[in-house]
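#structure-requests
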Amino acid sequence: MATEDDTRFVKWTNAGGETLSTDNPFTFTVKRDTALRAHFEAYAFSEVINGTVYNLDVDAHTAAVSSTNKVHNMFASLVIPQEVRTAGGQLYAVTALNAEAFRGNGKLKSVTIPGSIGEWGAGVFRQCDSLQSVTFGEGLKSIGAEAFPGCSSLASVTIPNGLTRIRKGAFSACTGLQDIELEWDSPDRGTVDADAFAGVPASCRVHIPRGSEDRYGYDRDLKAVWQGLPVVSDRYAVGVASGDTAVGRVTGGGNRMVLYAETTLTADADSGYHFVKWTNADGSLFSVANPHTFVVTGDMSVQAHFAVNNAVYTVKLSAVNGKIMAGDGVHDYDTEIEAVAEADYGYHFVKWVNVAGDSVSGSNPYRFVLTEETELTAVFTKDTDEPLTGFGTLLGVETLSGVYYAEGVLRLANLKGYFISVSTLDGRQVLQFRADSDDERYAAALPAGIYVLNAARGKEERHVGTKFVVK
């Protein structure tokens, strides 16, 4: 056999370039002056190198992975190098994968393809149904047509930022594919031919780089798609830790959290201890709920705090334009507290706020289980400050009577025993009931508008309220 340094004879031609013979040696009779030219070409041949068959081009010093490899089924793990060295010591750059080179290889589980590959034949890894992992080397620009069709065990694949062409049917019928790690910083980074992902399950997720969300149309509705597959941005971190691992542990969080998706943190206290709160990295309160479910909006760090069970805590309640009726004082841990506030005349309750001014509850009484030192303030506002006009003194009523509407409740003062009617300006009645107390609270979802309230008790007493507005 000729070596790679050899060439092979092709033909003889005359001065006009006409072929005279392909025989070598060539025997003929001389009849006149004759000019002959011998033609040679580089000798291409195959060689098995490290168990893989390559077609070697002596002239270009390049190697192509041969189509004959499909009959061998030799490797569970295949790393195709960027260059190979022959038995004669010559180096060849590996630049091509010939058609169906590993078709139907049932043993192959992983393959690495170097960046030197510039040419793909069709169906290189077709129906390699044991193939689970594919790695594309740095510098690789394209994936060939029908490169991996029917590779049913392939569960994930990473598309590097530099790989900018995915040809037709490259991953078609990869029925086990669940994750595509797409490193393109924009969906326009490369070209994807028709049916490149045809037959891939609809549950397969496309993971995009952080910071690229706007370019993929990814937002809080979580409905962005790429090649018909759902897009997720899950490269955000939620760090979670226990303030004291000796008394409690935490679960949840991680380094691959989905932006704008819900996640849950759970704190588990050891015997004799209880969970108190979650705090942010700066020590500010994050939540007192446990488990705590929230929407991820970026990187964050959260710490769980625990305390011993036999502790006592102080509940400090205060009010302006009102007074605290119950709940203030020192209480045992895990006691149910009922915080009650009463408004001064001409005011009504709005909400409870904590020391940071954050709203805690709109309920009064407000019931909660005591797990830490607690300080709350009852917030009141003037009745006349509501976006509603209250009663003045009504005919035949010795005490001052009034009405206001807030948070879906119609509240009546000093109208016990009166029949109440609320109508729109066009006379359409929307409410009718009897007030059973001088501090009547009637749940009513009133749409925005102007209303007239009438109050009556007996034939001799009829009272008409002024108009009030619901905004």
